[in-house]
Structure formats: C-alpha cells, structure tokens
Amino acid sequence: MASSSILKDQINLKRSSSHIYTVSYHADWTAGPVLHGGCVAAAIHHAATTHLVTEPTLAALDQPDILALHLEFLRACEARGSTITITDLKVGARTSTLQLELSQGGQTKVIALATSINLDSPGPTAATAWRLHPPPRPAPDFEAVLAHRPDAHWLPAHLVGEILPFTRRQLVLNPRGGFPVDGICDAWNTFLDDRMDATYLAMMTDCIPSMSDTLLRNGGLYDARRSFTQIEQWAKENPGIPAELTNSLKEAMQTPIFNNTVTLDIEFKRKLPKNGVQWTFTRAESRMLEGGRMDLDVTICDQNMDLLCIARQAVLVLDARRKFRDRKAKSVL
After folding, report:
1. Do 109 and 161 have their domain in common?
2. 169 & 55 share domain
3. Does 1 map to a domain?
4. Which of 136, 151, 74 is nearest to 107 (CA)?
5. Same domain, 71 and 157
6. Number of domains in the chain
7. Do residue 92 and residue 147 come from a single domain?
8. Does any domain span residue 331?
9. Distances in Å between the alpha carbon of 39 and those of 28, 29, 183?
10. Along the 333 residues of the chain, how does pLDDT read in single tens digits?
11. pLDDT in tens, 213-259
C-alpha cells in the first residue's frame, strides 16, 4: 500500500484519542454543497487501515488490510471536516471487525463496518472461468496514450469543471464505439500525478458515469453517451490528444436527476504493490432501473486485467433540485 498520496494528504487524518479520528475535506471532493460519496468512503477506509496498524491490540494481530467494507450513507456529508469514531466489535486471530461512525456537527452521517485481514496470509488458491461478459475492448498501449499517440481501441479525456474538481487530475479512456450495451460502461483510469492504493480504490468504486442518466439518455452531466459524443468528435480532429470536458454548478442545477447511494459494499480481492498501481480498468453495470431504484455493480482490475476489487451500490435516483438547490445539505431520504 502506498504510504502517502495526494488523496491521503487531502483526507488529513488525525488521531484525537485511541478510537476517535478527525478528517478534513477538500474542495476537490465537492458536488455542489455536498461531498462525493467515493471520497467519503476513501476517508473511512484510510481511518480503518490506520487504526488497524496503530491501535496496539489490533496491530499485534497483523491484519493491516481491509477485506470487506460496508457503508450506510444515512445523510449527505457537507463540505466540512468530520469525526470518525471507531468501535472494535470483534478482535480475532484471522479477521477482526470494526464499526466506524462518521459524524459532522454531532450528527451521524455514515455508518460503516470494516472486516480486516492480512491479504498476504497463505490459503487455497485456484483459477476460475470467470470473465467479464461481454468482453471489454483490448487493453490500450498505456505508454502511447500518455505520449498522446492515438490508441486503436480507446479515446482519452479529462473532465475539468466545478463538480468534483478532482477529476482534473484524472485521465479517463473511453472505448471507441461508445457504450452499445445498455447498462454497461467500461473505462480505463489513471491519475497523472499519483498512483492508486487501496484507499484510492475505495474512491474509484464511485468514480463512474451516471448509469441512470446513461440508461435514460437524458443528456445529464454524467450521461456517458453525451460525453462520448463530445469525445469522439474531438478525437476526429485531435487524434491522441485528451478531450477536455467541462461542467458547472449552473448545469448541475438544470439536470433532472441525481444518484443517491444508499449503501456501498466493497470487497478487496488482492493486495496491491507497495507503490500502488498506475492504471485501473473499471466496469460499471446496472441490471435494472425501476421506480427510481437502481442496482450498480463495479468491477475494478489492474493493467493485466487481474481483479482488484468488486463493489455493489444500492442507489435511489432522485430529483436533482433536492441536491443542488438545498445548500444546507439536508438528508434527501
């Protein structure tokens, strides 16, 4: 696990007592008046992994990794600092379980359960026939992409805007031909100034197009088809050069819907190299959008298409005016 990163510097985790931590927030994480759920998940993951290696009883067990992380988003997190209170629910020889409560101004915003393990521990291993279906396009030539040479299968883009400004550091590769299968969006991601560790992966489980906007083809801010049209047109005139997309709060206030993640479950499948990874492949997949309720599965792989983590969200698709026009960031549920 990378010892430091821009993301962890922004989280700015500090210990107040043996089981209480504070975290900062960064303007990069904001979507209007609230914080991005993926960044909140990353802050909780960082607090959990820090606690596992610094609390003496847990540190002695040598369980530095998170196997599974479950989050219940009770209320929207405001653009302000947070307190994370940890309870050691189970301390075991093989796995332990932590409860993490993130609060702001004395109000509980997120409840999480984290199961710890040592991902280097020996145990049975066997290959399976699992594959992504339908198969994604062949992996890009990463060096060529970074050198701004066109790739046969992927088109590069940056998103620079007022919503979630951290995306300005991110390069996203979209598949040529767009997204022909309803409910499936593939992409390759890298951060140009950082490498990704497990805390980054927690964030990346929520760094995806809006599947609801894409399914409804409503031209919303994160409608993958809308973005791809712009990217494809740019690539015709500027082969190999990343398209630069923008967004604004004004546009966000005009979009009809937004996705409210109710729960997020993440399972980490393998330990990352100590210096992290440079590129990740992400597949976002929804089985059904019905009555404003949507399931969302996220699969993240490394450059070799080896599985790194899987995630599942339960999502409510709501009126966007309730998010961007309420600056007090009240609960939308």
Report:
1. no
2. no
3. no
4. 74
5. no
6. 2
7. no
8. no
9. 9, 6, 24
10. 446 899 999 999 999 999 999 999 999 999 888 999 999 999 999 999 999 999 999 999 999 999 999 999 999 999 999 999 999 999 999 999 999 999 999 999 999 999 999 999 999 999 999 999 999 999 999 999 999 999 999 999 999 989 999 999 999 999 999 999 999 999 999 999 999 999 999 999 999 999 999 999 999 889 999 999 999 999 999 999 999 999 998 888 888 898 999 999 999 999 999 999 999 999 999 999 999 999 999 999 999 999 999 999 999 999 876 655 544 444 434
11. 999 999 988 999 999 999 999 999 999 999 999 999 888 888 889 89
The secondary structure of the chain in percent helix, strand, coil, rounded to multiples of 5, reads 25, 35, 40
Beta bridge partner(s), residue 279 = 190
Q: How far apart are CA 104 and CA 77, in angstroms?
A: 8
* Residue 197 neighbours by CB distance under 10 Å: 25
Instruction: Pull the structure tokens for residue 90.
Output: 């189970």
Pair (37, 162) in one structural domain: no
My answer on whether 169 and 286 are in the same domain is yes
Pairing of strands 243-245, 154-159: parallel
Decide if 66 contacts 115 (C-beta within 8 A).
yes
**Structure token digits, residue 164:** 């979630």
Distances in Å between the Cα of 203 and the Cα atoms of 7, 43, 133, 253, 322 are: 9, 9, 24, 24, 24
SS3 call for 308: strand
Domain extent at residue 170 = 142-324
Whichever domain contains 37, its CATH number is 3.10.129.10
Whether residue 165 has a cis bond before it, omega within 30° of 0: no
User: Which 8-state DSSP code applies to residue 196?
Assistant: B
Rounded to an integer, what distance in angstroms lies between the CA atom of residue 91 and that of residue 61? 9
